[in-house]
From TrEMBL, chains A, B, C, D:
Source taxonomy: Bacteria, Bacillati, Actinomycetota, Actinomycetes, Kitasatosporales
Pfam families xrefs: Glutaminase (PF04960)
Organism: Streptomyces tateyamensis
InterPro entries associated with the record: Beta-lactam/transpept-like, Glutaminase
Catalyses which reaction(s): L-glutamine + H2O = L-glutamate + NH4(+)
Record protein name field: Glutaminase
Family membership noted in the UniProt record: Belongs to the glutaminase family.
Length: 302, 302, 302, 302
């Protein structure tokens, strides 16, 4: 199979779909993104890296960062699972409803509420949650310039009443260890990291390698890595996780910056990026490209 | 009818019920209240004031203050009704669920979310929402020492993650005009006012007089005063408003400090206080006393 | 006060509002009603009966019947209150959501679910729930021809999947004593009774007389009659009960046939009818007329 | 890898967990099941069949049947996806709440509401939905005696108020093509089929073979078969789908009779059965056995 050619075909299949999406505009800094930008990268466990389109352009990784906060928090033990569930939420990513019914325990680590709790845990563990994510991404991608975009982080904080509501609500149930302001600061900082498709595909390879990092060291046990893949599949793309599993058939994590990082266990990773989003907040082009790629290659896990 | 005797009888009927309640303990400053304290006061539109038990003891008025913030906000016009509804919520006083479904418009001015919006409005109108409530209470009760308990206000703020969540959530829908911190500061300050049954009964008389203040000036039109009474009846006692209407049959506002201020339109006001609360957060003794009083006197509005 | 003149004025104030409403069309038999029909009747405890417009025209009383099923069920004791609550629901009249959270106990007797439970109780008590309502209405109105419209009842049954869902759902929680089909049959039959404003105003007088029937016999204790008025005020007009209390200030029960029966305790009853409904399912004209009448006469209970 | 040995080990690991579960007792016919019964079967795409424990004992397949109704309905086209979603529900399997919010479109084909819609579709397509499922199971398992247990089906119907509520509710939104009674009859009849672990493992192999039946004919396209696997993974085990994916890592469908049928794409199927259920309604022993088996063999899809 010629993976380069399949990448190109998936890219070509996705391009025409971009016009149907809308760039996220809840913060000005994201609203300025080019709706026609699109890139796709593939990294294999054998060390190959390929890309097409704008695959080396930096974008705001947003919620894709939640995959890394979870992995880093779990690297030291499973305690965080007492404070956040593993079930799909069936509700929008920033909903407070379920949190009230379920007494401050977020449904899963990938809705905003759950990511706030995981960030809190990582902050307790490391003293610098955003820094830990940044360093991990730099190490795995080999890109030492990868960093938080401070303008985006500040913009998120300024327009962050909804996340502040979530964090205070969780705190009201006693499910935060650190002050709300500190947790939110780190949350915004890791969401506002900018990276390229290339960077993220490389950084996600530890999940395709079942827990093994670029340097050969083990971040997670084989079993734990597989389990993160399972949570990605059931919860990684907001309340469209079922649809993503149906169409793409790979564990993946999306962000409102337009990126989606998907894992092909044992084989590699794919990262697609296009800022135009569908109504569930997932990149129209990224979903289309991943769908086309897995259909053509049979690389779905099912 | 010998009103003094009926007050005494209502008081005597209520006393034995106190043991079934629990003092609010969500903030330490309230948890110290004496569960056996109990007082009952009556003020008539003719100028009579009577009381039994601990009717001259100060207590934290808490949500009873919401009646006054609403009246003061409405005194300058009906604009606040664009930002808060008039329907019973059917959910607990501090719930966020409905707020999400209804896009940041609280159901009514007496659940916490609605009171935050009304406080915000009063802050815009007056520059000092808590001060406006305090001055009004002083003027109507004739008690110049009536004031905010700063220890209680600070304790509320310290344990106020739930209210902070509500306020940020409302702000995320664009339904706050002032900064969250400022609004919450005034909210806590008017809730933390201490007053006696006597003070509150006198302060509430403008509603029994259909809008006319102690000094003969008009705060609200006859129609508007009646309408506040209607909102009190349907929404004034949290999600037990139906039960309160059924048992007591008067418009009333309760607070977790254990006070309930009830209005007998055209006749007067009753204020009962006992810190032991039922599961809906209403004073066990106050409900029992008001029930006994209206049953004996026929002073229900129905 | 010239009550006839006030009735006429209220009628005249309401007429222009009719055009803003829509006739209920969920069953064909109701959809044929004339949106421009409008009538208003007043009956006093002194025996006066006045009317304007189409006050002697028969219409489908629909949910107004629920007031009578409740009164008749309570006439034999308070047992039904173990099976249905007294709180406003905060949700549409035919919602199943709350029923699930609250394990088959409807919030109040006036939402559909609650009325199904009350009908079930009345069926157990009398063996003929619809017949009991019909006989009571005939006796109080003095209209021996008042009866169920069998075409409407059949049409309700035919289009009654939602009510069937409610009834089966309640039965699944063990809160029905009779077979679902039997309960629904009686429910549709009492809702499909046709009567005029005149008939209903007379039939409701027992609530203005605090429990005393036309023949001087007592249906309910004074206390129980007052309490039904309280439930009417907080729950009688679907999820617009707060708005109705705010505007009209009287206990009342509405139906999707366009009728509203309101009680002025100690004074009399008003029945207004106009098939054009607002979005909450209440008659646009009837609400407007009652609003105008109570504003002009000061007959609000507040 | 010695698959027989791994099966035996998984069986041995599961046995001690049985005591922590409870047999479903919502219908008498199921309540009589032996809580200590336990069996486990494996069928491979190469034609091997192995089993341990009570793997040849018949049990009530219940919701496992929903996998087959879906596959048979999809075999003729994708139209059913207009009437049912593909997202996890985040709520219990028999909830009506979401159905109300989402206007009668069930979240997925495996919650009861969704299975009712799929059964309705299959009834329209075949004229005999339960018969179609039965014939398919007989053909794939090679067991001609496999049949509906009429006592169980009758018991389901008799205690089926909840499902009747769901079906009427769906019908009220216009999302049923056949009469409620007919649809429920077929629904109960296919749920009440009895089969053994061996039978079900064989009957599920078409999903491991990506759509190819025992006789070599194709029921579904490769792509459609993979997509059913995806829906199984995200929605197949009620509101514990996330947990099942996390622990077991295979697409699977459970039933309250205690069976779970899991698919190992490209390799085979596993069927485990033990009537003792956990709180989410999944077999305690079956989950434990599948967890142990995939952990030991690495046969998770992740």
């Amino acid at each position: 199979m010629d993976l380069r050619r399949e990448l190109q075909r998936a890219h070509d299949a996705a391009r025409p779909t971009l016009a149907t999406g809308r760039v996220a505009d809840y913060i000005p800094a994201l609203g300025a993104a080019d709706p026609n930008a699109f890139g796709l990268a593939l990294a294999t466990v054998d060390g190959e890296v390929h890309g097409v389109g704008d695959w080396q352009t930096d974008f705001s990784i947003q919620s894709v960062s939640k995959l890394f906060t979870l992995a880093l928090a779990l690297a030291t033990g499973e305690a965080v699972w007492h404070r956040v569930g593993r079930e799909p939420s069936g509700t929008p990513f920033n909903s407070l409803v379920q949190l009230e019914t379920e007494h401050g325990i977020p449904r899963n680590p990938f809705i905003n509420a759950g990511a706030v709790v995981v960030t809190d845990r990582l902050l307790t563990l490391t003293g610098d949650a955003a820094g830990a994510v940044r360093e991990f991404l730099r190490a795995e991608s080999g890109n030492p310039r990868l960093d938080t975009d401070l303008v985006v982080a500040a913009s998120e904080a300024e327009h962050g009443h909804r996340n502040a509501a979530l964090a205070h609500f969780i705190a009201s149930y006693g499910n935060l260890e650190n002050p709300v302001e500190a947790v939110l600061g780190h949350y915004y900082a890791h969401c506002a990291i900018t990276a390229s498709c290339r960077d993220l595909a490389l950084a996600g390879l530890f999940l395709a390698r079942h827990g093994v990092r670029r340097n050969g060291g083990r971040l997670l046990s084989r079993s734990e890595a597989k389990r993160i893949n399972a949570v990605l599949l059931t919860c990684g793309t907001y309340d469209a996780a079922g649809e993503f599993a149906y169409r793409v058939g790979l564990p993946g994590k999306s962000g409102v910056g337009g990126g989606i990082l998907a894992v092909v266990p044992g084989r590699g990773t794919l990262c697609a990026w296009g800022p135009a989003l569908d109504r569930a907040g997932n990149s129209v082009g990224a979903v289309a490209a991943l769908d086309a790629f897995t259909t053509a290659t049979g690389w779905s896990i099912f």
